[in-house]
CBS domain-containing protein (Streptomyces mobaraensis), 142 residues
Amino acid sequence: MTTAKDIMHEGAQWIPKTETLLNAAQRMRDLHVGALPVSDENERLCGIITDRDIVVKCVAEGHDASRCTAADLVQGTPRWVDANASVEEVVEEMGNHHVRRLPVIENKRLVGMISEADVARNLPENQVHAFASRVYATPPQT
């Protein structure tokens, strides 16, 4: 069975919720990533911020990225997957919650990230379309 740990990118890094969005953007640039998991003071996942979040919810709104923090952007229940979860479980989690990136947790610690491209590379060709359709579908309004 192929697991989340088998398909993830290792070396993912937290950003504390107290970190400024300017520092978060610089870290994304340095790591060549478009998203960072956000941790609370106990190094527990409390959300994810993306480069798009910084642009749309901070910069485009006229806020100062050197004063806004990651905590200002995180909302809702963060989604994650256990390192031993099957690819099918990863697909289910991403599809059900319309997320494109998923932190991988092992023993309560961040060990990697999975993107939709990682999943697509590990699905049979006939399942890639169904997966993409679920992830990119418009989520129901609540």
Notes: The first strand starts at residue 9 and ends at 10. The chain has a mean pLDDT of 89.
